[in-house]
Design a protein that fits this description.
The chain is mainly alpha-helical and 175 residues long. It has one domain: Up-down Bundle (Fumarate Reductase Cytochrome B subunit), CATH 1.20.950. It contains 7 helices and 2 strands. A two-stranded antiparallel sheet has the order 1-2. α1 packs antiparallel against α2, α2 crosses α5 and α5 packs antiparallel against α6.
Length: 175
């Protein structure tokens, strides 16, 4: 492939803005957990709105933003993981099956995290230690999945010689 490889738009502006807004809102929510309840609450509601927006966009958005484009069947995911283990996985223009599965897991975890946060924001459950523990466990699960996501992005960027972080900024990948 030459130095002048053609680049094409893959990620639309809404997907890119959503992604980075989600990162920012999660970081704010995570670090405001201790003594900044109003900030924590606000960032949690921003996260909930972003998740809802992304779910809608997953059905009506641009081609690579749609769930139909990247949510893999279990057999497809298993086959892809086998290819990764053997170092023979193909490059995808959009999300690969592992990335698609991770998006689903992250959105589900975020939805559950937001739901438990909303419940904890009610007078009845505000001091419920069991509910707080569930909320904290979901946060820990998110952190593990974020770490796995970052490892996957780094691996795919290295393996296919393309900067996926830059692609999520510019929206463009090589053909």
């Amino acid at each position: 492939m030459g130095a002048q490889a053609r680049r094409m738009r893959v990620w639309d502006p809404l997907v890119r803005i959503f992604h980075w807004a989600l990162v920012a809102a999660f970081v704010v929510a995570y670090f405001s957990h201790g003594g900044y309840l109003a900030v924590h609450r606000f960032s949690g509601y921003v996260l909930a709105a972003l998740v809802l927006l992304r779910v809608v966009w997953g059905f009506v958005g641009s081609p690579h933003a749609r769930f139909a484009d990247f949510v893999p069947r279990p057999r497809t995911l298993a086959s892809y993981v086998g290819l990764v283990v053997r170092g023979r996985e193909p490059r995808y223009l959009g999300h690969n099956p592992a990335g698609g599965a991770m998006i689903v897991v992250l959105l589900l975890l975020l939805a559950a995290l937001c739901a438990t946060g909303v419940v904890l924001d009610t007078p009845r459950f505000r001091d419920d230690s069991d509910f707080k523990e569930v909320h904290d466990l979901l946060t820990d699960a998110m952190l593990v999945c974020i770490a796995l996501h970052l490892v996957g992005v780094a691996y795919a960027s290295w393996r296919h010689r393309e900067n996926l972080v830059a692609a999520m900024v510019s929206g463009r990948k090589r053909e």
